[in-house]
């Protein structure tokens, strides 16, 4: 790429979180000819180089990915539907469901708690969750009155110590619920991760972004 081309086509910045999203995005990047040169689990760097000098990867918290992309600090990113629903999606274009990091958003309670009866009897439930918007909407649509308690992690603990009657959390294997004697009583929605693109970047950097979006789209059809 010539210097002249580079100056009119500044590099791309991709925001990813460590762990399952980073791991599941690597094959999608490979399909676009991009490989990340450092491992975020062992490197302390927060900006990682790739084999393409025009593409760099930011390592941020999963819940912060939409924020970096919304404000244009990253041009694109990968975030779970759970995270996007809480963020609201403002300023984000969401072209592709990547079918990665699949899980479900569910309601869970202590094994001894009769959730169905409590709901039928119109009890007011205390629900602990990181996903307050999704939880509020879910219980409102069922006409169930809830007091929501916002937590930032380890939701499984809340019913065990009497902080709440129920939790709303993401579940994949169900092993964490089982290990804590909790039971999944309601599935709210299926969750997977999406590609999110800054709306201005999509216009200004379309020539660089479009082939990557298309490669991700093709590769994601074979995931899952
Ligand atoms: O961990 P951190 O607090 O930094 O943030 P995070 O938990 O939001 O990030 P991360 O990387 O763990 O998850 C990123 C995205 O992966 C989430 O936004 C989801 O869309 C998706 N995902 C898929 C999951 C899971 N599967 C999952 N199992 N996110 C979290 N979990 C947790 C869950 O909260 C529970 O504590 O794993 C535990 C349950 O797992 P099982 O297999 O025991 O059911
Ligand atoms: Mg986590």
UniProtKB/TrEMBL annotation:
Domain ATP phosphoribosyltransferase catalytic intervals: 61-217
Iron-sulfur as UniProt keyword: no
Protein EC: 2.4.2.17
Keyword annotations from UniProtKB, A to Z: Amino-acid biosynthesis, ATP-binding, Cytoplasm, Glycosyltransferase, Histidine biosynthesis, Nucleotide-binding, Transferase
TM spans (from-to): none
Classification via Gene3D superfamilies: Periplasmic binding protein-like II (3.40.190.10)
UniProt keyword annotation of Repeat present: no
Superkingdom of origin: Bacteria
Family: Belongs to the ATP phosphoribosyltransferase family. Short subfamily.
Alphabetical list of NCBIfam families matching this protein: hisG (TIGR00070)
Subunit structure: Heteromultimer composed of HisG and HisZ subunits.
Reactions that this protein is recorded to catalyse: 1-(5-phospho-beta-D-ribosyl)-ATP + diphosphate = 5-phospho-alpha-D-ribose 1-diphosphate + ATP
A molecular-function term among this protein's GO annotations: ATP phosphoribosyltransferase activity
Record protein name field: ATP phosphoribosyltransferase
Metabolic or biological pathway: Amino-acid biosynthesis; L-histidine biosynthesis; L-histidine from 5-phospho-alpha-D-ribose 1-diphosphate: step 1/9
Record note on domains: Lacks the C-terminal regulatory region which is replaced by HisZ.
Top EC class of this enzyme: transferase
PANTHER family per record: ATP PHOSPHORIBOSYLTRANSFERASE (PTHR21403:SF8), ATP PHOSPHORIBOSYLTRANSFERASE ATP-PRTASE (PTHR21403)
UniProt-annotated location(s): Cytoplasm
Function noted in UniProt: Catalyzes the condensation of ATP and 5-phosphoribose 1-diphosphate to form N'-(5'-phosphoribosyl)-ATP (PR-ATP). Has a crucial role in the pathway because the rate of histidine biosynthesis seems to be controlled primarily by regulation of HisG enzymatic activity.
CDD domains registered for this protein in UniProt: PBP2_HisGs (cd13595)
């Amino acid at each position: 790429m010539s210097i002249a081309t580079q100056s009119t086509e500044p590099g791309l910045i991709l925001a990813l979180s460590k762990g399952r999203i980073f791991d599941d995005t690597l094959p999608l990047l490979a399909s676009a000819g991009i490989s990340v040169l450092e491992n975020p689990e062992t490197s302390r760097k927060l900006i990682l180089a790739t084999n393409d000098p025009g593409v760099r990867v930011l390592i941020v918290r999963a819940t912060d990915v939409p924020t970096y992309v919304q404000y244009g600090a990253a041009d694109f990113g990968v975030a779970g539907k759970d995270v996007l629903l809480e963020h609201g999606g403002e300023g984000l274009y969401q072209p592709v469901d990547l079918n990665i990091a699949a899980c479900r958003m569910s309601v869970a309670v202590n094994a001894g708690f009769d959730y169905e009866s409590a709901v039928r009897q119109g009890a007011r439930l205390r629900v602990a969750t990181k996903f307050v918007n999704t939880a509020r909407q879910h219980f409102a649509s069922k006409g169930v009155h809830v007091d929501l308690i916002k937590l930032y992690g380890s939701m499984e603990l809340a019913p065990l110590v009497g902080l709440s009657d129920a939790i709303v959390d993401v579940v994949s294997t169900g092993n964490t619920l089982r290990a804590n004697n909790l039971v999944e009583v309601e599935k709210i929605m299926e969750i997977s991760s999406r590609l999110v693109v800054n709306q201005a970047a999509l216009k200004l950097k379309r020539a660089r972004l479009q082939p990557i979006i298309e490669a991700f789209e093709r590769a994601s059809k074979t995931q899952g």
